[in-house]
Specification:
The complex is a heterodimer. By secondary structure, chain A is α+β, with helices and mostly antiparallel strands. In chain A, strands 1, 2, 3, 4, 5, 6, 7, 8, 9, 10, 11, 12 and 13 form a 13-stranded mixed sheet that branches. In chain A, strand 9 and strand 10 form a beta hairpin. The longest helix of chain A is centred in the first third of the chain and has 44 residues. Chain A starts with 11 loop residues before the first helix and ends with a helix. Chain B has one domain: Winged helix-like DNA-binding domain superfamily/Winged helix DNA-binding domain (Arc Repressor Mutant, subunit A), CATH 1.10.10.10. The longest helix of chain B has 18 residues. In chain B, strands 1-2 form a two-stranded antiparallel ribbon. By secondary structure, chain B is mainly alpha-helical. Classes of the chains: A alpha+beta, B mainly alpha. At the A-B interface, helix 2 and helix 3 of A face helix 3 of B.
Chain lengths: 867, 109
């Protein structure tokens, strides 16, 4: 047929649109009226004009069409609401399970959303974020101060900042003493490069005086209470008066933790070293704000060349720029840095996955209970279909009904979130605030709502609306076996997820327990760590003067130690430079012309005794030989092959205090966390760098021992606050991340198991009710109650056991992957897997027993009189 | 009794006048002609449905017409209740107009 002969039609898409808005019964008549307008115009002015008229007519009619649509939908909606409300009321237990389950799942998802959002937004709020880079030297993130000269010569560098987080002075406010917490010093440019939320003071002028201090809000409250901190004085180490010039909102969203900030330019005065900025032995994280459109690789090369040219005799190093936004989630522990906190992307992904899984469990409950009861709605569906409802109407109705339930659950979930927020905060170790009206939060809430409503609504809606009214009315086929198997799949899924979480939690907790209980190779019990402050921590100029006079051991430290040992409660005292479980200080030795990096513990000769280390060959460094000081080393077993010295003792090599030698070997001990393999390390007597006293006490009277230490402290060091930690606690803290993960997983596990059981509880009630008559007949025919229980439990048990098949491999893969992070792993036996299965089965059977036993012990006469 | 809105009144009148041939397009033409601007189909459907629901007009289906490709039109008729409503509106208007001298009205315009 010639296409020209086909009369032109109105634009198809608009036509469909109009028909969508018209009521079913109006589609014919009114749709045709639009067409008629088109045809009239077609005859008068042709197709071009007709289409235009049609389009204009549509646009003009749209408000009316929509108003009409809403008008008629509202009438139907009222009916839907009535039915939905009746349905909720009809089976209160199941409705409660649905709403409570969904609310718990959504609350959990929302809490995790808050945490994940907090993690992902660290550093992301910095407006200059994409132009800031951290300069790194080899595997060090901290750079020497003398490089600053080079930065000034590059036009590409707009501003640069160095942070110092090494200073740990004592604060004095009025006559009260405080430890400093997270005090950093930064260049004035810090407030140009980074943005902080100033509550008081202006970022442009806060550092105009070199003795200014900016406090975070929480620090200001700690130091000044409710008083206005602005203009008040904080005295550092009883010597330097700083004035508070600004207060910022707590910078939790920044990867450098700081609570108080002073100007970097004051450090030379503070340290008594006027040439501080030209020196090589202090290292600080360094951030460069580059001009827009700087070509990074090219600039990196130029910068490295320029820095290496001033390094001169120290030899060239590799320099690289790390994008600022990559720092927080950087996983490579090879970069050594100071004062930086890190996020864990694996954890973020894991938690997001857990949130979705728990929400899915809740949705599955809902789906199961709704489809299980579909037969009870069969009549309603049939009547609606007979009265002319098309599938679209039913879909809309059931989706709407689900949305209503989900909405009620959402309100409950929001209450739960508000109630559990503090508890969740302590679980994750972070304070989380909700901006209830914030766009992101509302978006999250909406996303969770839509996800839940769609996932739990779509399946049942499709199922219910697809039922054939004839089949429904004849009461046949409502128990189609295909539906049972669909529900089975969902239940198996639920239990698989639950078991996966149980196994995961058992493995994480197991590894944590393994780590804290594994012999670390040194004793950590009954050792107190006392951070040295005030007089006991010699300022560098005092230390230098002392060394110049030839006094190798600090007088105050010596007095303190002697005073401590006067009590029989004190077994031994040693001064150490780092926590024994987390050594990081390193030096480079030159052994037979080769450069060997070594981890170094600067301490005194009592270290070996106090920590109970074993000397396997050679001798300990000795108080009696002054020549041992700084020049004689103990190494661990791992260092022996690494150094390649034969014979080990006697040969001199170059270390940081001159020609040195090795005098003894100690048995390997875990001087770092169990994430790392024991590497080569050395112990040297050099007490000038020590900052902590490790005090071994006898276990008989710990309070008396502590009182004695406090007394001795007060005598030699009255102007500094006294504080201590137990070393085993400090060691445990090294595994805080694992402990936290374990606790969080544990909480989720209980939630997941509880939700699964909630669903099972509802479903078993339904199944028992369905089989009332069967049970009655069986009992009449002589079945025992126990047989009935077994009969009813058999199916459920089978499903739970089936879930193992899916949970085990997934959990095994996760566990192996996670355990790879540790150099020393627990043995992953079948234990966690079997425990998880047994636990899941037991919980499932207990849950359904309520209904099975009730059904089994019921009087068969009642059951048979059922109709 | 609730009074008719102005658009309802206009449409009701149009349906009355077109009695026997009142369907979407003819109503639209009629009132567009009377008011002097083009009404869209959508804007007359809302009051039409409202009036139907209130029982002022009733719907019927015409014989299938060739013009519509063998489909029937939806025709609207005024019900007695609708006629009553129109009468009420007119009476109220008349009583309100009464006493306003014709000349003041003309001067104002």
């Amino acid at each position: 047929m010639n296409p020209a002969l086909i009369p032109p039609e109105p634009p198809r898409s608009i036509r469909r649109f109009i028909r969508f808005f018209l009521r079913h019964e109006d589609v014919e008549g009114r749709g045709a009226e639009f067409d008629e307008l088109f045809r009239e115009e077609l005859q008068i002015r042709g197709p071009e004009s007709a289409r235009r008229v049609y389009r204009i007519q549509f646009i003009l009619s749209l408000p009316g069409l929509i108003a009409n649509y809403i008008f008629w939908e509202a009438a139907m909606l009222k009916n839907y609401l009535t039915i939905a409300w009746r349905n909720l009321g009809r089976n209160k237990v199941i409705s409660f399970i649905n709403v409570a389950g969904l609310a718990l799942g959504m609350a959990c998802a929302l809490l995790i959303f808050l945490w994940v959002d907090g993690e992902l937004s660290v550093d992301r709020t910095q407006p200059n974020g994409d132009r800031i880079f951290r300069l790194e030297e080899g595997d060090w993130a901290d750079l020497q101060t003398r490089y600053r000269k080079v930065f000034d010569t590059f036009p590409e560098i707009e501003k640069y900042v160095q942070f110092s987080s090494w200073e740990k002075p004592i604060f004095r406010v009025g006559d009260k003493l405080f430890d400093s917490r997270d005090l950093v010093f930064a260049d004035d440019a810090v407030f140009d490069v980074f943005k902080f939320d100033f509550l008081r003071g202006s970022p442009d002028v806060v550092f105009s005086d070199p003795y200014s201090l900016v406090l975070s809000q929480s620090e200001a409250e700690r130091l000044f209470g409710a008083d206005d901190p602005m203009g008040k004085t904080v005295v550092l180490d009883n010597a330097f008066s700083f004035t508070v010039t600004g207060v910022v909102a707590d910078p939790d969203n920044f990867h450098i933790e700081w609570k108080a900030m002073g100007p970097f330019k004051t450090l030379p005065a503070l340290k008594g070293r006027p040439n501080f900025l030209d020196l090589t032995n202090d290292n600080f994280p360094t951030y460069l704000l580059l001009r827009p459109n700087t070509h990074i690789p090219e600039f990196e090369g130029k910068l490295a060349a320029a820095i290496n040219s001033i390094r001169g005799a120290d030899g060239p190093k590799e320099f690289s720029l790390r994008p600022f936004l990559d720092i927080y989630f950087a996983r490579d522990a090879v970069v050594r840095e100071s004062g930086v906190k890190h996020g864990n992307m694996t954890l973020v992904i894991l938690f997001s996955a857990v949130a979705i899984m728990i929400l899915l469990i809740a949705c599955v409950n809902f789906i199961n209970l709704v489809t299980a009861r579909s037969s009870s709605r069969a009549k309603e569906i049939s009547v609606r279909k007979a009265a002319g409802a098309v599938r679209k109407n039913l879909l809309v109705q059931f989706l709407g009904e689900t949305s209503l339930t989900v909405f009620a659950a959402l309100l409950l979930a929001l209450v739960l979130v508000a109630v559990f927020l503090p508890a969740f905060g302590s679980l994750t170790g972070e304070t989380i605030d909700i901006d209830w009206a914030g766009g992101k939060w509302l978006g999250g809430v909406l996303a969770v709502f839509l996800f839940t409503a769609l996932v739990s609504g779509l399946g049942p809606a499709l199922h219910l609306s697809s039922l054939d009214p004839v089949v429904l009315m004849s009461r046949r086929g409502t128990q189609a076996s295909g539906r049972i198997s669909f529900r089975t799949v969902l239940i198996v899924f639920q239990f698989a997820v639950g078991m996966f979480l149980i196994i995961g939690a058992l493995v994480v907790l197991g590894q944590f327990g393994y780590m804290v209980s594994k012999g670390l190779g040194y004793s950590q019990e009954q050792i107190l760590l006392v951070p040295l402050k005030g007089e006991l921590k010699e300022p560098l100029q005092v230390l230098r003067a002392r060394l110049r006079e030839g006094k190798l051991f600090g007088e105050t430290k010596r007095v303190f130690k002697q005073r401590l040992l006067q009590s029989s409660d004190i077994r031994g005292v040693t001064f150490i430079s780092q926590s024994p479980g987390a050594l990081t200080n390193s030096n480079t030795w030159t052994v037979r012309g080769e450069r060997k990096p070594m981890i170094i513990m600067q301490t005194d000769p009592d270290f070996v005794d106090v920590l109970g280390l074993e000397i396997v060959s050679g001798r300990n460094i000795s108080w009696d030989r002054e020549s041992d000081l700084g020049l004689c080393y103990l190494v661990n077993e791992a260092a022996v092959p690494f150094l390649g010295l034969d014979p080990l003792f006697g040969e001199a090599f170059q270390a940081n205090f001159g020609q040195s030698q090795i005098v003894g070997v100690v048995k390997d001990f875990h001087f770092q966390t169990l994430h790392q393999k024991i590497g080569p390390m050395a112990i040297v007597w050099f007490d000038s760098w020590t900052d902590t006293a490790a005090i071994k006490i006898s276990g008989t009277n710990i309070p008396r021992a502590i009182a004695h230490i406090r007394e001795a402290w007060g005598e030699v060091n009255p102007n500094a606050p006294f504080g201590y930690t137990f070393m085993d606690e400090a060691v445990d803290r090294l595994y805080a991340a694992e402990a936290r993960l374990g606790r969080i997983l544990e909480a989720f596990v209980w939630l997941a198991v509880f939700l699964s059981c909630l669903g099972l509880f509802g479903l078993s009630a339904y199944v028992a009710a369905q089989k009332t008559k069967e049970i009655g007949i069986r009992k009449v025919l002589g079945a025992k109650a126990s047989e009935i229980v077994v009969l009813l439990s058999k199916d459920f048990s089978r499903w739970v056991l089936l879930a193992n098949i899916f949970a085990w491999p997934a959990a095994y893969a996760f566990s192996m992957k996670w355990l790879q992070r540790f150099a020393y792993q627990m043995r992953l036996g079948p234990g966690p897997f079997l425990w998880a299965s047994v636990l899941a089965l037991l919980v499932a059977l207990l849950t359904i027993s309520f209904h099975t036993i009730k059904a089994a012990t019921a009087n068969p006469a009642d059951a048979l009189r059922h109709e | 009794m609730k009074l008719l809105s102005r658009s309802e009144e206009i449409i009701l009148l149009a349906v009355w006048r077109l009695e026997g041939n009142a369907f979407g397009i003819s109503i639209r033409d009629q009132i567009s002609e009377a008011t002097g601007y083009k009404w869209s189909l959508g804007t007359i459907y809302v009051p039409l449905d409202k009036l139907t629901r209130k029982g002022y007009i009733a719907k019927s289906y015409s014989k299938p017409t060739a013009q519509r490709g063998g489909r029937s039109k939806v025709l609207y008729h005024l019900t007695p209740k609708g006629r009553e409503a129109l009468r009420t509106v007119r009476e109220i208007q008349a009583s309100l107009w009464k006493g306003i001298p014709e000349h003041t009205f003309k001067e104002g315009s």
